[in-house]
Amino acid sequence: MSKLSEIPIKVEVYDALSDWEVHTGEGENVIAKRMKGRFRTLKNFGMSVWLIYFLGPYLRWDGHQAVLLDIPKQQFHLFGLTLYPQDIWVLSLTLLFFAILLAAATSIAGRVFCGYFCFQTVWTDVFTFIESQFEGNTPQKQRKFNAAPLTANKAIRKLGKHVVWLAIAILTGISFSAWFTDAYQLWGDIFSLQAATPVWVAMGIFTFFTYWFAGFMREQVCFWLCPYARLQGVMYDQETVLPAYDAVRGEPRGKLSRSGVQEANKGSCIDCKLCVAVCPTGIDIRKGQQEGCITCGLCIDACDSIMDKINEPRGLIRYASHKELHQGQTKVSLWKRPRVIVYSLIMAFSIIGVGYGFTHFEPTEFNVVHERRPLYIQMSNGDIQNKYTLKLLNKTDQPLVVNYHIEGLPSASVEGLEQGITIQPGKIVPVTALVRLPSDTTSSGLHEFDFVATSEGNSAISNRYKAVFIAP
């Protein structure tokens, strides 16, 4: 067999094979064959990431839930840190990072998110595995089981499958709710029927759609409901590596004789259709890139196993770019692709921003609002008065007693800041301050000064806000 680099490129071979194939869902669902391989192992590893979804809410940190989205209190607890709506920019940068990461991964290697991490793909794979344990571990056995007349054994197996499916669906709904309330208390509230209404609503929605989508619709969600599947073509380019069939090497297809010898003058493909049998969406990758391809690479595992058996080199189906297969070009370095560079810069910016945010969180946030109607008041004795509203957010988990004073206006008097203010965790207590300057010491225009907030018993907590005093 010639080396891959020595095989001439014949684009017309690909044009002859190209065909758009969509599984419409009519008839039976796709029953994919399961087999071992490096990409199946990688897929299993990617699926295991979702264990964080189920186990994450039960982690504890200093006696509290490590990760908690407390919507009623407008707080996001993350391993000892507490984020408030004022810190939304950190969460925005985090979401930006993952959004661009998704786009970058698609540009580099296609729908790898769909193939290895997407919740629809993962839950469907789990549901079909459970189905195989009850109804047969091969597509042939499952078809025979479904075609058989109804018996007690068949009914029990069918019932058992659906019971397990529903249990996973319910657990999915409970796990979602557990991120928004105390996870351990949630179970007690559910079993005692004391859970809040949003919990029941979330459980109902997640149970229904998990059971329906993963158990029945399966690949049809990818074909007809998922908007991300429709956006893939925009993110691909001719240098994106995707599972692809090397038609120049594989065509024309031949068959193995009973003695295991390939037909003469035939390509490497023996038309065993194992690549189709293992595909979760039921497409034939030999017909070219398809809408249903989720870039999972299971067809590569299948083809490689056959190539090993017939003593042919692996790679008849492999991750390859359009330029490699159709133009014979070598793989381009990622750092020579402008799109990848732009994506990398945006992700680097996001990481730097998130890192800065998490390392520079302040225990309090101090803000002062100047009264604008009116901007100032001239008192009966001639003094000029400005009104301010002081707001300090307590981001700690302990009450703070805060004292306020001003600096920068030596002759000014202040009313409303005589006593310390107690601020509970996560709360803001507005304080009105009236600042007056004698008319004989006040020049017209703007006068800068500082409001200073200090915490009793904790000198490390001190805030300063630059304000302006307005005089006529």
Structural account:
The protein has 472 residues and is of the alpha+beta class. The protein folds into two domains: 1-50 and 84-148 and 218-361, no CATH class; 364-471, Sandwich (Immunoglobulin-like). Helices cover 42% and strands 19% of the residues. Strand 9 (377-378) and strand 10 (384-394) form a beta hairpin.
What topology does this entry show?
Elements: H1 11-17, H2 38-48, H3 51-55, E1 60-61, E2 64-65, E3 67-70, E4 75-78, E5 81-83, H4 88-109, H5 112-116, H6 119-135, H7 139-147, H8 152-178, H9 183-191, H10 197-217, H11 219-225, H12 227-230, H13 232-235, E6 242-245, H14 247-250, H15 274-277, H16 298-309, E7 317-320, H17 322-327, H18 338-359, E8 364-370, E9 377-378, E10 384-394, E11 400-407, E12 413-415, E13 421-423, E14 431-437, E15 445-455, E16 458-471
Antiparallel strand pairs: 1-2, 3-4, 4-5, 6-7, 8-10, 9-10, 10-14, 11-13, 11-15, 12-14, 15-16
Helix pairs in contact: 4-18, 6-8, 6-10, 8-9, 8-10
Short description:
It is built from 18 helices and 16 strands. 42% of the residues lie in helices and 19% in strands.
Question: How much of the sequence is in beta strands?
Answer: 15-25%
Oligomer designation = single chain
Tally of extended strands?
16
Mean pLDDT: 88
**What composes the largest sheet?**
5 strands, antiparallel
Low-confidence region ranges: 1-9
State the helicity in percent bands.
40-55%
How many alpha or pi helices?
Answer: 18
Sheet/helix structural class: alpha+beta
Characterize the overall form: elongated
Number of structural domains: 2
C-alpha Rg, in Å?
33 Å
Report the end-to-end length measured between terminal Cα atoms.
93 Å
Pfam family, one: Fer4_18
Organism: Methylophaga thalassica
Transmembrane segments: 42-59, 88-109, 163-181, 193-214, 340-358
Keywords: 4Fe-4S, Electron transport, Iron, Iron-sulfur, Membrane, Metal-binding, Transmembrane, Transmembrane helix, Transport
